[in-house]
Write a structure and sequence with these properties.
Length: about 425
């Protein structure tokens, strides 16, 4: 396979190629071997080979084909060494191309390669796993992140994350999880799980739940990539397109969510010229596709509605141009379609902006006091609405309560400032 010299950092080129190809690579190898742990080991071997060879020999014309060929050859070697699996070695050898000049066409020899990536996403989100394990395994197998990168994103020790991923693989093996796409109602249920994991990853990146950083952009960016991948693999699902639209439109704000000194900036105070216009165009485009599918009778749900709300903010050139009445109406629909305390709290914000703080407080007062446990969300929103109503003493008390609840230092700094404590 011909190689080309690259003027960039070879390590960065390899990382980019791995991120782009790892899901298809591990997915195809899992289909061939029926062993997700072995598939990942073979893929990692191919990555090590690339790290050793590409800096000196140059980057191949088709990095994905090179990685696939290398991984398959290591698979052949593995099965040859295991006499009881001689039949699988023969299957792999039959698909192993002999002429390196033909390697760029290797993708054509692998049936349903995009389905393999989709299968891998569904496998990573198997119902036998916890939500945390699904997120970790998705980032590992589908996102191609290292254990250290995932551990940093979720603020845990690398050894802890390694154990979590290892346990997840063992659970899949013990449950005899099938590497097949589910169908019918099971597919819908599992697709909901997949989308939930991607959105969980995005939210942890967009608004970190703990630690010193306001955001963890690597996690948010990876979630956006996973959402785009899922939308490409399931382009006729309006909720999948809604998820892509939601994370990209919200993700577009990240450059404006911190100021030049690194302090957090809330939505209304953000410099909207810093919003990423490419992400907005992508997100709005995905939302339009979802709207077309909805017009054909395909059902939509919470991601579509949340994306429609996010699009209202994206379309407003200034904060004061925001159509809060439209947002409040969309939240009313969302509260019917996907009721829950978080939706109600956000609906209170929208009604407070659209119809005055007393209207927002009326919605918030209907949320049970313990609905979100020790989350700072309810008291922080209450403080904002009270402040807008001119009830400053009560607002300071609410902000102080919220500051005591949050585990994120950047959020605590904002809340303490609004409480007049700094």
């Amino acid at each position: 396979m011909p190689a080309q010299r690259t003027t960039g950092d070879p390590h960065e080129v390899i990382v980019a190629a791995w991120r782009a190809e790892s899901a298809r690579l591990v997915g195809a190898l899992t289909r061939m071997t029926r062993d997700v742990e072995l598939a990942e080991d073979l893929a990692q071997d191919a990555l090590v080979a690339a790290l050793e060879q590409w800096p000196a020999a140059g980057v191949p014309d088709n990095p994905g084909a090179w990685l696939m060929t290398t991984a398959k050859r290591r698979g052949v070697d593995h099965f040859r060494r295991a006499e009881v699996l001689r039949r699988k070695a023969a299957e792999l050898e039959r698909t192993d191309g002999r002429d390196e000049q033909q390697m760029p066409d290797l993708d054509a020899q692998i049936d349903h390669i995009e389905d393999d990536a989709l299968r891998l996403i569904f496998l990573s989100c198997h119902p036998s796993l916890t939500a945390e394990s699904r997120a970790a395994l998705t980032l590992r197998l589908v996102g191609g992140l290292t254990t250290a990168e995932i551990a940093r994103g979720f603020m845990v020790a690398e050894s802890t994350m390694g154990q979590r991923i290892s346990r997840a693989k063992k659970t899949l093996a013990a449950s005899r999880a099938q590497f097949e796409l589910p169908t019918g109602a099971e597919r819908t249920r599992r697709l909901d799980d997949v989308m939930a994991v991607i959105y969980l990853i995005f939210n942890e990146g967009y608004a970190a739940s703990s630690g010193t950083d306001w955001m963890r952009p690597d996690l948010a960016n990876e979630a956006m990539r996973l959402a785009r991948m899922l939308a490409a693999l399931a382009p006729d699902e309006p909720e999948v397109l809604g998820l892509q639209a939601l994370v990209e439109i919200q993700g577009s704000r990240m450059p404006a969510r911190i100021d030049d000194e690194g302090a957090a900036v809330l939505l209304e105070a953000q410099d909207r010229s810093r919003w990423d216009r490419l992400l907005i165009r992508r997100g709005v485009g995905a939302l339009r596709q979802a709207e077309l599918l909805a017009g054909q009778g395909k059902p939509v749900g919470s991601y579509f509605l949340q994306a429609s709300i996010a699009a209202q903010h994206a379309r407003a050139a200034r904060s004061e141009d925001t159509d809060w009445r439209r947002i409040a109406a969309l939240y009313d629909v969302l509260a019917t379609a996907a009721p829950g305390p978080v939706v109600e709290v956000n609906r209170a914000v929208a009604h407070g902006r659209a119809f005055g703080p007393d209207a927002g407080l009326a919605v918030l007062d209907a949320v049970p006091a313990d609905a979100l446990g020790e989350s700072p969300l309810v008291p922080s929103v209450r403080g904002d609405l009270l402040e807008r109503a001119g009830r400053h003493t009560e607002a300071r008390a609410a902000f102080t309560e919220a500051a005591g609840r949050t585990r994120n230092e950047s959020e605590r700094a904002i809340l303490r400032r609004r409480a007049g404590l700094t």
